[in-house]
């Protein structure tokens, strides 16, 4: 219990001293390899313990009152980074931002998104908010109207980690989604496990029939990308294309490719 209290205090300090930073992971066109977008992933630059991935702290962060503020700060940083990438590449690069439940519960998400888009000049269609099942299974009457308002702005809504949970097809229909993200647990064995291959094919068919884009996560080897391409999956993300990295590194790569 003391350890939990200590972590909470440390998270509060981390927020105040701006130790939370944003890494970006590439998302690519599986046919051409071109960069189409990035996902913003939170990191904690801890003064003693070094760079920490969310696994070490995100569950606790979600239970603290600062979660929504941290989320809003990630959103703003991500949109600024996306603008820099857009300028460097000379075309739209989409940015995916993971939402905390607290951002939707507080009720000011739509206003925050509008403000950040106005401040950064990022076109709304370049922003995609990622929601997980934890959010889908929360209070629908609170959440769906906010997601509709975001869609009306032109912002995309992706269902993250799709296939791992209990969300039903009727829930899928009620939510104003634009994209499904196939969870990496299905992609990792897609070339060896017939069940995983069947699930991936089913999600691609579902996306196609509901008019949703589909992106596969966790692509690590070319054989996985081959399978996905052969089954008309257009977009992918994973270590094969790049680990989460600072925006400066990604901007440097864009220079090299020019
Ligand atoms: O980067 P990594 O694979 O360690 O991320 C682990 C988990 O943390 C992922 O499930 C991801 O969705 C979540 N996560 C990463 N960054 C954010 C963020 O900014 N906000 C929220 N809500 N979740 C995040
Ligand atoms: O939001 P989500 O939970 O989907 O976050 C993606 C997580 O997956 C991040 O923590 C990221 O570091 C991780 N990740 C991204 N690509 C790969 C990959 O190719 N392999 C593995 N094992 N993890 C990945
Ligand atoms: Mn995600
Ligand atoms: Na995911």
TrEMBL record:
Highest taxon in the source lineage: Bacteria
Source organism of the structure: Saliniramus fredricksonii
Protein name listed in UniProt: PAS domain S-box-containing protein/diguanylate cyclase (GGDEF) domain-containing protein
Domain EAL: 1-258
